[in-house]
Design brief:
Blueprint: H1 23-35, H2 38-45, H3 49-63, E1 68-70, E2 75-77, H4 79-99, H5 102-108, E3 112-116, H6 118-134, E4 139-143, H7 146-154, E5 160-163, E6 173-186, H8 188-194, H9 197-201, E7 212-213, H10 219-229, E8 239-240, H11 244-252, E9 257-261, H12 262-271, E10 275-276, E11 285-292, H13 300-313
Parallel strand pairs: 3-4, 3-5, 7-8
Antiparallel strand pairs: 1-2, 5-11, 6-9, 6-10, 6-11
Helix pairs in contact: 1-2, 1-3, 1-4, 2-3, 6-13
Length: 316
């Protein structure tokens, strides 16, 4: 356990490093470790970003070890930093609580960095997390595709990532969050034109209808074709919008047909703004996962966000 001297200094080195004599350096280190960036830590501590940078460099000189790998955005703790945080976090928090120091409150209020698909974040996740935000939990939300977001999670940029597939390997922990059903839809004007042709002719009936999708390689539609029709999709995209909400808006306006997660278009299906073109007995299902790095997060708000999402996911 860390030792805090009677004069307010500390001697809490990670294994095999020189002693640290300045308690303020350790406070700054812990703020950077918990927030994931020098800039965020500066805001928490009421310091300038150059001051935080200088203090971390001073601490690295004293310990003789690198504590953070600098990333294009933020920093990632090194193994030495994980060891040091494990040694100093509890003593510093206890000291701050005993003295009424604001650092304890500020560090616990470090933002939770959450990332995932833009559509899911906006339509399901943010409404679910609204009560936590009202209670003072700070959120920093980043939309994006699963592969790069998982790389950024490994690098320490995010605390939690909602992934569209389970990550491989043991460097990340994943729990199932929700199942999304994919549906083949178009505006009623196209459904009326097609009539019963899709039933009689199969997917070739859609060749004359523009395909609207969020990427050139039409991944959702290709999966639907394989699963439902047992064939390869040969129809190129007529319109691509890198956001499924844009795809939905275009299709509702009559741009063509698409395949969407049911949760995203259930209101439009219920109102008649969209028509279901096909209703297979076993529609394709994709499982989303909530992913984090191994170990219990130092920021308790990360645990609160994770637990609330897992609970909300049961009803999605």
């Amino acid at each position: 356990m860390a030792h805090v001297n009677s004069d307010g200094t500390a001697a809490v080195p990670p294994s095999g490093t020189a002693p640290v004599s300045d308690l303020n350096l350790l406070r700054t280190f812990l703020a950077v470790y918990r927030s994931g960036s020098f800039t965020a830590a500066a805001g928490l501590l009421g310091l300038s970003q150059p001051t935080v940078t200088a203090q971390i460099r001073s601490l690295e000189r004293q310990t003789g070890r690198e504590l953070f790998a600098r990333l294009p955005r933020g920093v990632a703790p090194t193994p030495v930093a994980h060891d040091l945080a494990a040694r100093v976090a509890a003593p510093l928090d206890a000291l701050a609580a005993a003295t009424g120091h604001d650092d304890a409150r500020d560090e616990r209020a470090a933002p939770v960095h959450l990332a995932g698909p833009a559509e899911l974040l906006c339509t399901r996740v943010m409404p679910a997390l609204a009560p936590l935000a009202a209670e003072g939990v700070r959120l920093r939300v980043t939309p994006g595709l699963t592969d790069p977001l998982l790389d950024e999670l490994r690098a320490g940029r995010h605390d939690l990532v909602i992934a569209t597939f389970r990550p491989r390997g043991r460097t990340l922990l994943a729990v199932p969050l929700m199942d999304e059903e994919f549906v083949l839809v178009a505006a009623p004007v196209w459904a009326d034109r097609l009539g019963e042709r899709l039933t009689g002719e199969g997917p070739s009936a859609l060749h004359a209808v523009p395909l609207v999708t969020y990427a050139e390689d039409v991944p959702i539609a290709r999966r639907y074709w394989r699963h439902v029709f047992g064939t390869r999709l040969s129809c190129p995209a007529a319109v691509t919008v890198p956001d499924l909400r844009g795809v939905l808006a275009a299709v509702v306006a009559g741009a063509g047909f698409t395949v969407l997660p049911r949760y995203l278009c259930e209101v439009e299906l219920a109102s008649g703004a969209l028509a279901l073109l096909h209703d297979p007995e076993e529609p394709p299902i994709n499982t989303g996962y909530l992913v984090q790095r191994p170990g219990r997060p130092d920021n308790p708000d990360v645990v609160r966000v994770r637990d609330l999402l897992v609970d909300a996911g049961r009803s999605w």
